[in-house]
Amino acid sequence: MSVVHISTKSKSYEVRIEPGLRHTLYNLMHAHKMSDASSFLIITDEHVHDLYIDDVLAGFPKQDHVYVEKVASGESSKSFEVYQKLQERALEIGLDRKSVIIALGGGVIGDLAGFVAATYMRGVRFVQVPTTLLAHDSSVGGKVAINLPGAKNIVGAFFQPELVIYDTEMLHSLPEREWRSGFAEVVKHGFIRDREFLDWLKGQVTSFEQFNDEFLKEMLVQSIGVKADVVSADETEQGIRAYLNFGHTLGHAIEAELGYGELSHGEAVAVGMIFALRLSERVFQIELPVKETITWLETLGYSTNVPKGLSAEQLLASMKKDKKTTGGLIRMVLVEECGKAVLKDVADEPLLDLLHKAIEEGFDDSWN
What we know:
By secondary structure, this protein is α/β, with parallel strands linked by helices.
């Protein structure tokens, strides 16, 4: 079993990575200081419920204090309405401060269930059981949140899990679009912190069909390791944790303006990363391997252009809703070189100029 250790000021915990771990979830929690749990609430979505809930429940010796709540699959479940229903359900079944909430699903479920756990009775323990590649990023680090219309993850908290249990077998039921969504976050970690890891990915990954359990473990240990280093140094995003938002300022704007679900999160972030690379070239007067990255990502099925129908003005207005905006300037995560991220406050004019060019011309070699 592969283990990544996460250490923050508020909590230390482990990410355990191995095929088949869903069958031993109860035993893993019992061994990680949750033997005193009075009850369990498993929050999952309809799709994951149908695939895996029986496997998970079979590992509990007694099920009289194990409750399951399923919500609709997709970003629409990260809403106040669903959040309130889950809080009311927790109260109805008598969850107390010794209870454990289990997030069984992808990033949406992790964010939603984590925010329920963070706020029910001012905080009860929770365990992340990610079922997507995308959730390798969101399940680690303690960011939990729900959305408002037009603003993603705007209502939330920093609340660390007790344990992250990553059963790589569950990833093999994912459609290719979900592989793309999650892999964008893996690539992000290379760009901001680890050039060698980025080069390894570019050399190794030519198709998602090669993602067997052994390869996934190796890749996940490295990618989560980058996240662990950043979160350990800056748990509440006072400094370098903001680097993890590389590609997300424009990516979130694209998601919000298109409507959540039109592009997957990672597909939108991939466009945002290419834009951030081009902006980095402009700001620092450098040359980055943008064309090479575009070719590689397109080979894997990504579209690297801003989706049609969106205007530069529309995207800029959405980008200014970003939590990192300060004093009217948008704080962008850029790179001085591959593997070295920096924060840079950028005014509207250069962003509008580059957005217009991206929409009209794409991200081709004529940019500079």
